[in-house]
Amino acid sequence: MVHIRTDREISLISASCQIVADTLNMLSEHVRPGIKIIDLDQMAEEFILSKGARPAFKGYMGFPSTLCVSVDDEVVHGIPSNKFLEDGQIVGIDCGAEKEGYYGDHAITFSVGNVSESRQKLMKTTKDCLTKGIAEAKPGNYVSDIGYAIQSHAEKNGYSVVRELVGHGIGSNLHEEPQIPNYGNPKQGYKLCEGMCIAIEPMINMGNKEVVTDADGWTIRTADGKVSAHFEHTIAITSDGPKILSAVSKNG
Ligand code: MG
Ligand code: MG
Predict the structure, then answer these.
(1) CA of 106 to the centre of ligand 1 (A)
(2) 3-class SS string, 185-221
């Protein structure tokens, strides 16, 4: 079922979203060549716990870590390891938190040191895809209007959209209905209405759309070995349109 959230519930979801936004903002200071990926995970876990929240991914379906950290051709769900980040890589960091029974989910792809122009363009286009998808998340539109906007922008730039993984409703569970694909034709699927909270998360590949799963059962990577980027926000659909809950608040 699709949940329609009360104002109180939306403020609780928003509180968890603020924690993930602040976590990624804190991590952004540490993403650089030479940092050990598992150290980022440790910092994130301590930060989230210090806010009275719980890392939402840790233990979810057996996932072992606080963050999903996905480097270069890894699309999503990379498990933090003892590897070091290297100059020129792009790294997707996805973070979830739960506080008082409500969830926030947010992801950013970061540059590590000096990143090539073509990789920067992929990251910017993916972020723009997210912005364009969010703009469609308003009452009266349909779920597929979001995916159509994302797919159109990605393909116009010569990139491809991962099909196997999608955005989702969010609230009292990390993943709820409806699924929010990053592709599709307009005016299909569930009709969006005020009070829905969803996570929109385009995964855009530089090469073709095919992905494979590593032997660890989690890490999703591109089949052709080319790089992929991922950005995600949790939003609430309001009578005024989409409200991003996982942006860093100006009040800190
Ligand atoms: Mg996420
Ligand atoms: Mg998500």
Answers:
(1) 5
(2) CCCCCCECCCCCEEEECCEEECCCCCEEECCCCCCEE
